[in-house]
Amino acid sequence: MRGLNMAEITVVGSINMDIVALTNKYPEHGETLFGDSVKLLCGGKGANQAITCARLGKSVNMIGSIGMDTYGKVIEKNFQENQIDTKYLKRVENESTGCAIITVDAAAENTMLVIKGANDSLNVRDIQAAFSRIEESKILLIQMEIPEAAVLSAMTEAKNKGMFIILDPAPAEGVTKQALLYADLITPNLQETKQLTGIDVTSIETAIEAGEYFNQHLGVKNSVIKMAEKGALLYENGKLTFVEAIPVKAVDTVGAGDSYAGALACAIADGENLESAVKFAAIVAAIKVSNLGAQTVPTIEQINKYCEENNLSYYRLQTNQ
């Protein structure tokens, strides 16, 4: 087993630097407005999910690609400070690190323009090389912001190793139905659900329709259909559970879905059932949207304090810290 890696959770996905501009309202086409402030923050769906798992006490592999530039150095240092294994990071000279230009308005809603950059350099050979050294990882957490060939390769490798595969089918623009064939659980939001099923989810009833469509037509037995402030529907091979959202004053919704997916992975890695995992994820995401930045994920101590103050409970989280 010498030279092999045994992190509990393996994340494959995008790594970006987020340029976040805060403004009272979005400018119209051709309009110039003065915003409130701008911040440079580490981001990318894959990186956000890896940071979530690490801050919740799990050992994490991160497989992704960055440029050999200033942003790449900052991001790699951020991973290391959060005890994330970076040996599987690809560093490319001819591409800049991925970048997301994000605008957040007074209602905490956001628009996002993503420049993939080095993320598009991740290929099948990189995936196979990484997985050849990974053992005992329980969970694969993956999204759709990297090339589809790399996504499918990672899911195939994980399936061969008996890992539980969580697919966050985001963004909607990048979703392909082929990837669904390997997923043990998917976590689409409203836009992604409509993209994949054609169903406009506006209620629990239409969410159930979507869950049944995933199962009967796309072969996905387990799905968590995220309905934003309305809550989430867990469709578990025909069993239905609705989990209400936790009411909070949202500051920044960027990365909310990533913190949700990361929390799910942590709970499932601990052997929790899907209902327990979804309830835990709702707590983590609620705390995250109360703070600015895609990676402002709460620690276990902060979660415990929040639950005590709000009369909430969750399973006892196992950690390696």
How much strand?
A: 15-25%
Low-confidence stretches: none
Question: Which architecture does the CATH hierarchy give at level 2?
Answer: 3-Layer(aba) Sandwich
Any idea how many domains? 1
CATH class: Alpha Beta
Give the overall pLDDT as a whole number.
90
Total strand segments? 14
Shape: globular
Total number of helical segments? 10
Helix content class: 25-40%
Order of helical and strand elements: EEEHEHEEEEHEHEHEHHEEEHHH
Q: The biggest beta sheet, please?
A: 7 strands, parallel
The CATH topology turns out to be UDP-N-acetylmuramoyl-L-alanine:D-glutamate ligase
- Roughly how many Å apart are the termini? 23 Å
Which radius of gyration do the C-alpha atoms yield? 19 Å
GO molecular function, one term: metal ion binding
InterPro entries: Carboh/pur_kinase_PfkB_CS (IPR002173), PfkB_dom (IPR011611), Ribo/fructo_kinase (IPR002139), Ribokinase (IPR011877), Ribokinase-like (IPR029056), Tagatose/fructose_Pkinase (IPR017583)
Family: Belongs to the carbohydrate kinase PfkB family. Ribokinase subfamily.
Binding site for ATP: 189, 257-258
TL;DR of this structure?
The protein has 321 residues and is an alpha/beta fold. The chain has ten helices and 14 strands.
Overview of this protein structure:
The structure is a single chain. The chain has 321 residues and is an alpha/beta fold. The chain has one domain (9-15, 45-96, 119-309): Ribokinase (UDP-N-acetylmuramoyl-L-alanine:D-glutamate ligase), CATH 3.40.1190.20. 34% of the residues lie in helices and 22% in strands. The chain has ten helices and 14 strands. The chain has helices at residues 45-55, 70-81, 124-131, 148-160, 177-180, 190-197, 204-218, 256-269, 274-288, 300-309, and strands spanning 9-12, 16-22, 37-43, 60-67, 84-85, 89-92, 98-104, 110-115, 139-142, 164-167, 185-186, 222-226, 232-236, 239-243. Strands 1, 4, 5, 6, 9, 10 and 11 form a seven-stranded parallel sheet that branches. Helix 1 (45-55) crosses helix 8, helix 3 runs parallel beside helix 4 and helix 8 (256-269) packs antiparallel against helix 9 (274-288). It is globular and about 50 Å long. The mean pLDDT is 90.
